[in-house]
Amino acid sequence: MSLLAACGVAALGLAATPAHAADPVFTLAGPAEIGLRPHPGQSGTPQKTSVEFRLVNDTASAFDRRSTFTIDLSGLKGIADVALAKQQGSDCTLTEAAVTCKRPALWKGETGIVDLDLSAAPGSKAGATADLTVTGKAEGATFKAATTKVRVGGPDLVLERAALKEEQKPGDKQNLSIVFANEGTEPVQGVVLEMRTTHGIDLLEQYDNCSYSEDTGEGQPLNTAWSTVQCLLEGEYKPGSVYGVDGSLTLKAAPHAFADTLTYAVYADGHQPKAAKTSRKPTGGKKLAVRERAAEASAQSADLDPWNNLQEFDFRTKNSADLVAWPVALAGGTGETVRADFGFRNNGPAWVAELRSGKSVARTDIVIPAGTKVTKVPAGCHGVNADGTAREQTLGAPRYFCSTGHVVGEREKFSYPFELKIEQVVANAAGSVSVGQGTPEGTKGQPWDPNHANDKTPVVISAKDGGASPSPTATTSPSPTATATTSATPTATATSGATANGGLAATGSSAGMLALGGAVLVAAGGGLVLAFRRRTGAHV
Q: Across the strands, what pairs with 421?
C-alpha cells in the first residue's frame, strides 16, 4: 500500500471514530468557615455546630453512575470531634480517618451529600484551625472539591429581643431598642445592623450611615415587598462587652397596616446579606451611633449559634380590608366570542398578606351563565364542576376558581380575563362572581372583611338570537390585558350590572341604552356591544 493510500485509510478511520462528549463537571459546596464554641473542660458538654456539604449539578441532565464522596478528617485531630448528623440522605460511614458517602445517581440541581456535627475537642485551644475538604469520584465525571475552614472560638454577636407590643392600631408608634453583645472569644471590626419591615410598618428616622431599599421582585408591585435598612456601625466590638444603639428607631403602623412582620439582626461587617441594587443613602448629617453598656445588661447567654444574631416580631393591627367583586355585563350575537374580565378589588384600608404560610389570600369563584362556553382561561384559574368538585378539562367548564398570590395590596385590583362563546340564548340563565376565603364548596367571607354584601355580584350577558353579529368583541374593561398577578394600576371598571334575568337575556333591536357606571350598552350592527367612557385619574 502506498504512503498516500495509507494516509487516506487513516484519515477515514479517524473520521469514522465517534466523538465522545466531555465528562460532566460537578461542583461540591459547603460553608467557607465555621466557628466552634471552645470546649468547656470538665464543666459541661461541648456545643455542636452543624456543617452541610452538597453537590451542585447544573448540567443538562442527571448523572446515573455511582459516585463516592470522601472527607479527610486527619487535620481535625486534637481540634474537633466529628459525628454524622441524624437522618442522613446518603449512604455514609464514619471512621476516625474519614467520612465516606455513596450516591447511586446525581439528579439535576442541588443534592445533599452529608451533614456533620462538629464540636471542639478536649484540650483544643481557642484560635486553632483546620481544613475540612470534601472530594468526589465517579467513572465519567469530574468533581470540584470544597473546603471549609474549622476554627475554635471567634466572635459571637448575640442580639437582645426588644419589648414591642404585638397588638396595635393604624398610626401607633413604638421605639425599637437595639442591644447586642459579643459573647465570643475574638473582637469584631465593624457591625452591620439590618432591619426589615413589611409593607404596613414604617421606620421613621433616616441616618447617613444607613442604606434604604425596597425588596421588590421583578414585575411585582411595591406592596408585595419588604423594606430593608442596613446601618454600618463602625468600631471594635470586644468579647464580653454589651452595646446599645444610641439613636431613635421609631416604628409606625401605616394606615394600611394589618398583619406585618419585623426582623432585625446584627452581622459582622462583610457577613451581612447583600443589599438591593437600588438602595439609597440619606445626606441629612445625622448618624446612628453605638455606646457600650455595663456587662450585666446582657440578656442572653453565650452561644455561637448564628440564629441568635437575629430577632423576629409579628404585629397584628386592628384594621380591615373590604374585598369587592365587580359586576360583569357583556353583549354579543349568537355565535360570537366575547371577552370578560372577572375579578375583584380591595377597597382597603388594609393590605392583607399570608407571609408565614405563603397561602393564597383570596379566591374568585366564577359561575358561567348557561348558553356560553369558555374558550380561553387565564393563568391562576382552573375549571371545576358545577358543585365545585375537580374536573380534568379546563375549557368549557361551568365554573372556575381563580386564586391570588399570598399578598393583596390596599386598593389593588385582581382581574382575570376570560373569553366566552355565546352558543345559544337560555332564558333566565344565571352567572355570578364571588370573592372570599376558599372552601371545598367555593368561597366564604373572610373574617377581616366587614362587608360581605359586596362579596358576590351577577354576571349578565345580553345576546340577540339569530346569528353572530359583525360588531367588535365586547369587553368589560378598557385597560390592557390584565393578569392574575395584578397591579394597582388605575382602570375604569363597570360598577353596576344590568338586571335582566341575571343571565343570557334575549333582547330586541329596539333595546335602549343601559348605563353601567363608566360603560354604556349601545345597539350596533344588529347586536349589542359595550362602549366605554374612559375615566382619567380614577383609582379602583
A: 337, 373
